[in-house]
Amino acid sequence: MATLKSTLHLGSFILVLFSFITYAQTIHAMEMDHSKMNMGEKTDKEKTKKKKSSNHHKSKWPASISKGVDAWEQEEFDEDDLSNELNTEIGIIIHHQHKSGNWMVGYKYMNMFMDGMIRGTQEREGNEKVSPEQIARTQMGSSPLTPVTGFNYLMAPIDMSMKMHMIMAMYGLNKNTSLMFMTNYLQNDMNMVMQMGNQTTIMNSMYSSMQTEGLSDTVLTAMVRASDAWTISFGMSLPTGSIDETVLMNGNTVQAPYKMQLGTGTVDFLQSVTYKGGDTSFNWGAQESFTYHSGANSNGYVLGNKFQIDAWLRKTFSNQFSISSRINLVDQGQIEGRDAKIMNSSMSPTFDAANSGYHRANISIGFSKRFSSGNRLGFEYSKPISQVVTGTQMEVQYTYTLSWSYMMM
Ligand SMILES: [Cu+2]
Q: Residue 179 Cα, ligand 1 centroid: separation in angstroms?
């Protein structure tokens, strides 16, 4: 059953991906036809462009913004240039290469906001909206605290924000290989409610919040050029993030729930294949990425493996302002085992490993601007169009990313 379901999901992933790329290529072909009609004395111009492209990062500004149609002509494909642009306004890392000896540094701020809950059954996925009143109620006067008969949990999450500060550096090792180093600083905040009562009535609602904050895992990746269009990469995530974060609940210090931990606690292997097409003015691409968590961590559980597909389209105007659109499909596996330090998994759905694993589809719109100094600023807003979960989980409302990158020659 599970295998059939995954195969179906994978099938629809690939179908959506191919429609997206076909669409991109059709649009691009139409655009090329259009620009050919305006190509009178283009050969001289092309020669000039090729000469200029050796110092592309500092002086790729078109001669004049008012040139209009000229800006839509195909420019020479410039890999470094294109990669840097793609990385800035898109909320994921697009795997790419740099010239040998070339450095790039970047910072991304990502904020994911979750509000409310959705539910599937423990055996299969679903997306029925549920309220705290439906899943959590604590027996008035019970000691130790116990859920009212018919309810699974003592408390329910209301909303949560996950803020991620990503710092990355890239270095072109040789013509075909670039290395990336990345680390994150995380800030998690969750608001919760405890409803005291009995089978029929809620007599008292108590609100509380919990926070965790600190360094997350550290990622090292090698990105290898397979051809001009294809990049294959292999990475490793080292467990530098804590899995022993605690929070204060009703005056007691308890182990923080899975979602509030800062790291995975395992050495993770990352693999990715990226396709890129187009030119600096109009381009598209797709990327598959897989995260494999090896073994169980020191607290006795392992996070589910994650499979993702991204596809994007992007248009750059003559003033170096870009607009992009991306679709993202995620298949997140369930947690195996349970955190031995969580004493009471009926505290809230977030403390229960059974409430993990989901399928989610997101769409995004992004903007970015490159400055002549080599700096680039980007923004992307992303919203789920479909999410189905196993068990009871928080519903993602939106994610936004702010980014800065700088290319050193
Ligand atoms: Cu880079």
A: 9
